[in-house]
Structure formats: structure tokens, C-alpha cells
Design brief:
about 130 residues, alpha/beta, five-stranded mixed beta sheet, about 40% helix, globular
Amino acid sequence: MDVNFEFESDNRLCVYRIGGPITVSGMMQVFAKARAHTHWSDSYDFLTLLDHASLAAMPAEAMTKLQAQMAAADPVRDGPRRRAAIVCNDELSRAMLAYWEMIAGGTLTTEERVFVDEVAARNWLAQAR
């Protein structure tokens, strides 16, 4: 899994760029690393850009497990609900992410949406502010 993240303080965003095979443990490690970073803010929304990423190791059960682990690790329970946009350029992976979006509502502390392009995702994220 090839991952990096950056913070856009002006946009109140944590931006993840992910490529390669995605795993539950890999995702949890990168989320923990981002939260431990000095520029982290609990008020940030999230933009995840998947480019040539493979969700082959993330069947429905793994996605459910990842959401449960993410919810348990997220200390933010009060205040406005943050947003998380996922941009995916692969049709098959986007189909799998439709399941992710469908089950995320009651599990995660963020409102999740999946997009085909970054501009649409950023526009949706900006509406919350």
C-alpha cells in the first residue's frame, strides 16, 4: 500500500493519497499516523484519493471491520459531523465503495460519500463550511 497524507489547513482537510493493495491494518496505521501528526486537527474533514488502488483484499467483511475499527479509534463524538469524501478512478473499486457508503451511515462518526473526480469531492466538502 502506497500512502501519504497532507493537511490543508485553509480548507480544513486531511488529504490521503493511496495506491496499491489496500488492507484494514494498513489503513488503520495511516489513520493513526495522521492523528499523531503535529498538524492534525479534530475539526478536519477528509479527502481520500485512490489512484490505482486495489480493494481486492477488502471484501465486505473487511470493509465492515475497517469501519468498526475507525469508529472505535475516532475520539470525536461531539460537535458538527465531519465529512469524508473518497475519490476513486477505478470502476470495480467504486462499486465496492458503494457498499462502504451504504453501510457507513450508522457506523462512522463522519458522513461518507464516494466520487469519480476530485473537483466534485472538494465541492461537496466545501458545502459543509
